[in-house]
Design goal:
This protein is of the alpha+beta class and 61 residues long. It has one domain: Alpha-Beta Plaits. The protein has helices spanning 17-21, 47-51, and strands spanning 4-7, 27-30, 33-36, 57-60. The strands form 2 sheets. A two-stranded antiparallel sheet has the order 1-4. The mean pLDDT is 97. The protein binds iron/sulfur cluster (SF4) (2 copies). One iron/sulfur cluster is lined by residues 5, 21-22, 24, 26-27, 42-48, 59. The site of one iron/sulfur cluster has 14 residues, from helix 2.
């Protein structure tokens, strides 16, 4: 399964909730923002998307 996880940096506030929510280490904190590092490990659970307070994350299968 190929999953595309995208972060819209124009509305991300840097709260880190998505990094904490991902159980698969797909989203990591780098310098001052979250980045998608291991999309191959993504289960498409959408926890990151649901926890983001500003709806900055999209998850597409
Ligand atoms: S959809 Fe789930 S597994 Fe994929 S990046 Fe988000 S929290 Fe992690
Ligand atoms: S949960 Fe949303 S606002 Fe918070 S760091 Fe992640 S993408 Fe940015």
């Amino acid at each position: 399964m190929v999953v595309t996880v995208k972060i819209d940096y124009s509305c991300c506030t840097g709260c880190r909730k998505c990094v904490e929510a991902c159980d698969y280490g797909v989203i990591e904190w780098f310098e001052d923002q979250p980045i998608v590092t291991n999309p191959i490990n993504c289960s498409a659970c959408s926890k990151c998307k649901l926890i983001c307070p500003v709806e900055a994350i999209s998850v597409k299968k």
